[in-house]
Amino acid sequence: MKRTFLRSGLGPEGIYLIVALLLVVGVVLTEYVVGMAKQRAAQIRSMEATALLASMRAQLETEVNSVLYLSRGLLSFVSAYPESTSDRWYELSKEIVREAPLVRNIGLAPDNVMRFVYPLKGNEAAIGLDYRQNKNQWPAVEEAIISGRMKMAGPLKLVQGGLGVIAREPIYFRRDGEKHYWGLASIVIDYDALMLKAGIAESTSGFDISIRGRDGTGETGEVFFGDQAVFVNPVAKMNMVFPGGNWVIAATPVNGASASVVWMRLTAWLLLAALSGVIILIYRLYRLAYWQSLTDTLTGEANRRCLMNRTEHLAQLYPRTGIGFALLFIDLNHFKSVNDTFGHQIGDLLLIAAAKRLRENCRASDTLARNGGDEFILLQPGVGREDVHKLAAKIEELMVVPFEIDGQVLNISASVGYAVFPEDSSECEAVISLADSRMYTRKRNKKALERAEKEANEPLVRV
Q1: How far are the Cα atoms of 47, 250, 453 from residue 450, in angstroms, in the given order?
Q2: Which of 97, 184, 291, 376 is 20 to 30 A from 436 (CA-CA)?
Q3: What is the pTM of this model?
Q4: Looking at domain 294-455, which of 3.40.109.10, 3.40.50.300, 3.40.50.720, 3.30.70.270 is its CATH number?
Q5: pLDDT given for residue 287 in this prediction
Q6: How many degrees, rounded to 5, is the angle at CA 97 between CA 91 and CA 99?
Q7: What local confidence, expressed as pLDDT, does residue 3 receive?
């Protein structure tokens, strides 16, 4: 069939078929690459957005909580001394504002009527405010009174102008053993200054930022900062928790995903139009797959297939180079007991550590491969019988040194069997089989020796 095809020449139908096949393959590869790149880009953007939101959240929570912590002293004082006057309130409020510049003003409303505001200048309009008559603020105040806990409100427009986040907390005092309601304390935080201090902007570092949860209502609350569309499909979202409420902050990339997808597809189609680009891409994918097929995924060392390839290659070169090689089969003793005692995760970590220890004591020209389970094979070009015998002894000594894995001290040993090409055999399979057989012989001998030592150390029992 091949000869007939070549003799008949390549007609238009053949060209169209090849082009169609290339287009199909190109489309599949394009969508695959675009999908992978899109997924990777989304992961990166998600990590960036998460880091950005975490920083904003930490700053915002720190600022708000520090203000509320400082205000706790004033509330405790009023609760302890309900008959105190505004002169004492003034001194405590002055200290709070001095320590917390974000505090716009502090208000005290005995019986829900604002009687004290610090600083008074610029806030005169708030004096005399009866919360019960203010339909915008009374629901939040009433909820705080009923719950007996602090309630966050806002951001909202203040009577004295501007925007503020208000933390309202009912104040109670005890008299004759009974709890009585004194009134309400309001700590007003400058909303704009708070956002600036926390580094929060509607668009920053390539992301659109939005916050929802007006009046501390969290996920179900109204969006009060940024565009509500950000919450449709955010790449990152976090809760910000405050005493008396919480907000939810979200981020999405400034540039929509569609623009990047179009750009990636255009790039892929340009690469597809150039046949060389397609060939390079296929070659790189092939090389990656080939590399993976020759590597042990757990230890990162070569696998048996890779080692066999290199062994055959060295054997084929021997008639020209005169350089032989040694094969060492290394079996880890007592590995099964480690798996049974500590689990397969510790066992895997032990294999990785053992491979690392072996690699550190090998030459750059050597090939260390995992043969499966707890067995390794070491290929050493240009090594004779005398040298390999010393190396086998050295490896067994290395493996006796305890391993420290995840806080556990593990004791294992190794049994090493070896064979030399061409001294033991000029056939690769025979060398491999001989090394494997000697390793198992060595393993049986060591077990027998260990049993003998154990029996010798056991105390005699008198009958």
Answers
A1: 54, 64, 5
A2: 291
A3: 0.49
A4: 3.30.70.270
A5: 66
A6: 105
A7: 33
Which residues, at least 6 apart from 152, have a Cβ–Cβ distance to it below 8 Å?
A: 165, 166, 167, 168, 215, 216, 242, 243, 244, 245
Fill in the amino acid letter for 448.
Answer: A
DSSP states of 201-227 as a string? Answer: -SEETTEEEEEE-GGGBGGGSPEEES-
Q: So what's the pLDDT on residue 260? A: 61
What is the torsional sign of CA 296, 297, 300, 306? positive
Strand partners, 109: 184
3-state helix, strand, coil in the chain (%, to 5): 55, 25, 20
Which residues lie below 8 Å from residue 39, measured CB to CB, with a gap of 6+? none
Domain 12-254, CATH class in plain words = alpha beta
- Could you tell me which of 410, 215, 428, 421 has the C-alpha nearest to residue 332? 410
- How are strands ordered across the β-sheet holding 375-381? 302-303, 367-372, 375-381, 325-333, 413-421
Beta strands in 138-206 (DSSP E): 151-157, 163-175, 178-190, 203-204
CA distance 156 to 140: 12
Q: What is the mean pLDDT of each run of 10 residues along the chain (463 residues)?
A: 38 66 75 75 85 90 83 86 86 85 88 89 83 83 84 80 86 88 89 87 87 90 92 91 88 70 72 62 61 88 93 94 95 93 94 96 93 94 90 94 93 95 93 95 90 72 46
- Kindly state the tokens that stand for 186: 């309001």
- The helix/strand/coil state of 193 is helix
Q: Tell me which DSSP letter residue 360 carries.
A: H
> Which helix (H) or strand (E) element contains residue 436?
helix 428-457
Q: Is 278 helix (H, G, I), strand (E, B) or coil?
A: helix
Strand partners, 416: 330
d(CA 140, CA 161): 19
- CB under 8 Å to 422, separation ≥6 — which residues? 318, 324
Q: Copy the structure tokens of residue 355.
A: 């491979």
Q: What is the pLDDT of residue 276?
A: 55
Residues 6+ apart with CB under 8 A from 271: 277, 278, 281
- Measured between its terminal Cα atoms, the distance across the chain in Å is 88
